[in-house]
Amino acid sequence: MEPIAVQLNGVSKMRKRRIIGPIDLAIPEGYVVAILGHNGSGKSTLLNMLQRVVLPDSGQIMWFGQHYEGELPTELREHIAFVADGGGSEEDNITAVEAARFRAHWYTRWDAKFFKQLMDDMDVPYDVKLKKLSKGERRKFEIAAALAARPRLLLLDEPSSGLDPFAWKVMVEQFRNFMADGDTTILIATHIADEVKRLADYIVLMHRGQSLGMAEKDVVLDQWREIWYEGDLRPESIPGAVESKQEAGAIRVITTRVVEAQERLELAGNRIMKIRNLELDEVLQYWIAGYAPTLWR
Ligand SMILES: Nc1ncnc2c1ncn2[C@@H]1O[C@H](COP(=O)(O)OP(=O)(O)OP(=O)(O)O)[C@@H](O)[C@H]1O
Question: What ipTM score was computed for the predicted complex, to two decimals?
């Protein structure tokens, strides 16, 4: 069995408008996991609980197989890096060089050479107070500093926020290189399909404070198809059919079992006109409605 980076057992947090949880989740070590969900679904609360900025009201969290009462010990915290979604910080009035010096003290695996290389590649100035950087530059600095910490657990809240499309493309390359030669587990809270498509290995879907499970990204993107066909086969008899509609003499059916569906249609002598993969947001809509893809474990 794969080693687990973080495990949540019945973790919940009471918020004014809703309860987040109870969440049961096991995140395998060394993968990129996207926590997907609409606004207010509990993604940031989950990330905050994983760095103990927010304390759960009940349930248990394990980090690399260990449970801790109270504050997380330094030996663990120096292996966790977090990039929040915007906002200033206590580092506002210092430069990137000074911030790097500070972080090098804190993170024992700090990689100064890698930090410089990332900052140069992304063209971020070193000698300007962090609060004077543009939104995108600040974001790049935060991500460079998080990667240079060589954390075992990296928590990212909407990493592409504030980056222009070109900068985001460069950033994706940096993440991929980073993942290729490291053992870091990355959790990305997001509702941006491109972040998921380009980076994630797994998807966790959060909805109204609940986790609807975790599935491999490739399964999520591959399993759902829209088939258009002509003929007299009733859509309800097509394997995996979850929805169908008659339009302009053709039938449109959504299925999770495309191979069997195709066989059934061909066997019945119906003509398949078009088959299309569903987009991520379409799949999520069905997942939320109760038609989950094949879940991991
Ligand atoms: N500090 C807080 N105090 C009270 N309620 C909070 C607090 N932080 C978040 N909430 C509430 O908890 C729920 C989940 O919020 P959270 O920020 O975790 O969602 P999210 O999925 O990250 O949303 P978004 O996509 O908008 O960033 C929301 O209803 C929010 O109003």
Answer: 0.96
Q: Which residues contact 238 (CB under 8 A, 6 or more apart)?
A: 227, 244, 253, 255, 261, 264, 265
Say if residue 215's pLDDT is above 80: yes
Phi and psi of 244, rounded to 5°? -150, 160
Here the tokens at position 230 are 């002509």
13 touches ligand 1 (CB under 6 Å): no
DSSP assignment string, 87-154: ---TTTTSBHHHHHHHHHHH-TT--HHHHHHHHHHTT--SSSBGGGS-HHHHHHHHHHHHHHT--SEE
Separation CA 3–CA 26 (nearest Å): 10
Q: What is the pTM of this model?
A: 0.93
Q: Looking at ligand 1, which atom is closest to the CA of residue 17?
A: 29
How close is the Cα of 159 to the center of ligand 1, in Å? 18
Q: How far apart are CA 179 and CA 186, in angstroms?
A: 9
Report which secondary-structure segment, H or E, holds 23: strand 19-28
What is 241-269 written as a DSSP string? EEEEEEETTEEEEEES-HHHHHHHHHHTT
| Superfamily of 4-220 according to CATH | P-loop containing nucleotide triphosphate hydrolases (3.40.50.300)
Domains of the chain: which residue ranges? 4-220, 225-277
| Any atom of ligand 1 within 6 Å of the Cβ of 16 | yes
CB contact set of 45 (below 8 Å; sequence gap of 6+): 13, 15, 20, 54
Are 7 and 26 spatial neighbours (Cβ–Cβ below 8 Å)? yes
φ/ψ of 44, rounded to 5, equals -65, -35
- Scan for tokens 């109760």, then name that residue: 290
Give the tens place of pLDDT for each residue, 237-291. 999 999 999 988 899 999 999 999 999 999 999 999 999 999 999 999 999 999 9
